[in-house]
Amino acid sequence: MITAIVIPVDLSQPIRCQQIERHDVDAYRQIVGGNLQIVDLDRPPAAMYLNEEGKLNRMRVNHRATSLVWVHNSAFRGNDVIVGTALVVGPPDRHADDTSAPGDLIELLFDTTRYRVQLWTRSEPRWSSDNQAFTDWVEAYRYAIQLTETWELIEHVRIVPELDEELREQWYQLGLENPWISSADDPPFTRNSFVGCYSVEELDEQIGRGNWSMGTAFYYRDLCFMQQVDGGDEWLTIRHGIAFESMTLEPYIEEGRFARLVRRLLAASKEQCQALTY
Fold it and tell me: With 90 as the cut, is the pLDDT of residue 125 above it?
């Protein structure tokens, strides 16, 4: 069985997670109401199934599914719409079988309480955002699409969980208590030094670029790494509100062990972090 995200066309019906047998094509067809068509999604990789003949059968536009596709597939944005009920699953495995919908996407749509829109523009090839925050994922996606329609320099948009301000302040104070991080001056360490990552893969990619200045901080969910050495590889590691270890991450990244490390840290209790038994 795999976990799929079902997006009804009727806005009065909430989206839901549903368990489906991965080889039960009839179950897929029953959900979308006919033969299947697939659209690829990015950031994180996923796939959306829809009714292949939905437009011929004059099915209604699925505004929530359309917003998802327009944000998670930049090539699709503004060129087509999704009609009828849609179904989201994960990318195929090595046997070309569907996998469960990405955990990061499930957490974003079902478990997140505040959202922020991030932009990737041709003039500044990095993710950035304004100060606008949302409590509804649909509104966040609509705002992201609106920005792409009014600012031609935008190449990609995405929706990310908004960092809790109390957690940001806690991390900031821990950084100030660190003699190396607090002395950072190029750039200085501030409350805006924290860069959120949408997935473990992005966290891996960001940290793996190397040569980060002292005070640079990356986080994924409630796990934060702060660079303690200019251009080095010594990361103050924070979770459960405690700075419990200084970690060298480059070997984990080079050997393909970083994702496992992050999962262990996210699964560890406060006591396990303190005892370094994660």
Answer: no
